[in-house]
Design goal:
The protein is mainly β. It has a 5-stranded antiparallel sheet with strand order 4-8-7-6-5, with no helix packed on it. A 5-stranded antiparallel sheet has the order 21-25-24-23-22, with no helix packed on it. The protein is built from no helices and 28 strands.
């Protein structure tokens, strides 16, 4: 169903969830979850906890929210209105990619490796013990796989922004199998396998049928990738923009993350450079559901809200919400928040 702009103001019941918010919100209303303008690493109640450039989030099967607190080099956990530090250990640095597998396994990717090196080649995938917080290396020096998502069998899809490839990492055998893209070659081409080209592929999600959607940032597109490696354009074009409407003509601006709702068929896009959250309905219509295109911070409904970093998000399906990591985008400014948008 396509919602008109007036529908933004229809009141609906919103269960409070782990962070303890007001019970009533309207569709596409944004609310603070935790964090503030102040940077820090303070644990405690969500109203006083501080972060330092939160960049990505994952929602667990029990409703826990995990946050990649990038500049602090730690992973935080939000549960029952309280923030705690889950992962903090030597040589675990600059966490970005994060995913919870269908079986409940938590994986995190870091820009740095466990030996202390950090460059465009040192991306490392870790498995995290959710009780002790101990992170153990799955594999290191993978490039920079900032987009990761776990498949049903616990293999991990890597969307690699420096290598411009999509691959699958087997955490048991350590094999990393290329699906699509040409290693180290940036460009655009809808094709199969290594003939397909990406330019800074970022966030990745799995569709109900098993295909992948990848936020191809520099190409201003969301690409569809089959497990056989066939790549097509899902939405977007070479021209950056904010045009809503039919999926064939809608435009995006530097999308950095994507999430698919298996219950409705809707797809949500973090249109990061455009400072907007976009929705693609099951009827293939693109709508702007958050942000007015201006970089900043404001809570509000739909286009009355503003986002600053908008780097990664995750669906909280039981509470029908997007959990948004709204940090500073790496510019060091005072934006250190995790936010929630009702869907």
């Amino acid at each position: 169903m396509i919602r008109s702009r007036s529908a933004f103001f229809g009141v609906c019941l919103f269960l409070a969830g782990c962070a303890g918010f007001a019970a009533s919100v309207v569709p596409y209303q944004s609310q603070p979850v935790t964090g503030s303008a102040t940077s820090g690493a303070k644990d405690g109640p969500v109203g006083t906890a501080t972060f330092n450039n939160p960049v990505n989030v994952a929602v667990d099967l029990d409703g826990s929210i995990y946050v990649c607190d990038f500049d602090n080099g730690i992973v935080r956990k939000l549960k029952s209105g309280v923030v705690t530090t889950l992962v903090k250990q030597a040589n675990f640095s600059h966490p970005f990619g994060i995913t919870v597998s269908p079986s409940g396994t938590l994986y995190v990717s870091t820009d740095a490796n466990d030996l202390g090196a950090k460059d465009g080649t040192t991306g490392t995938v870790w498995v995290v013990d959710k009780v002790t917080g101990v992170a153990t290396v799955v594999d290191r020096n993978l490039g920079r796989p900032r987009g990761i998502v776990a498949l049903a069998d616990d293999r991990i899809v890597l969307s690699n922004l420096t290598r411009n490839t999509i691959s699958i990492l087997d955490p048991v055998t350590k094999s990393n199998t290329l699906i699509a893209g040409s290693d180290g070659v940036a460009g655009f081409n809808d094709a199969s396998g290594s003939a397909a080209l990406f330019s800074r592929p970022y966030g990745v999600t799995v569709l109900l049928g098993g295909d992948l959607l990848v936020a191809d940032q520099n190409n201003n597109r969301i690409r569809r990738v089959t497990m056989a490696g066939d790549v097509t354009t899902f939405v977007g074009s070479s021209t950056p923009g904010a045009t809503d409407g039919d999926i064939a003509t809608a435009t995006l601006n530097g999308p950095q993350d994507v999430a698919a709702d298996p219950t409705t068929g809707d797809v949500y896009i973090a249109d990061t450079t455009g400072h907007r959250i976009r929705r693609v309905t099951a009827a293939n219509v693109v709508q702007t559901i958050g942000g007015d295109g201006t970089q900043g911070y404001a809570e509000g409904v739909g286009p009355m809200s503003r986002f600053y970093g908008l780097e990664g998000f995750a669906l909280d399906l039981p509470n029908r919400a997007l959990i948004v990591a709204d940090g500073n985008g790496g510019d060091g400014s005072d934006h250190n928040r995790v936010r929630r948008v009702k869907i």
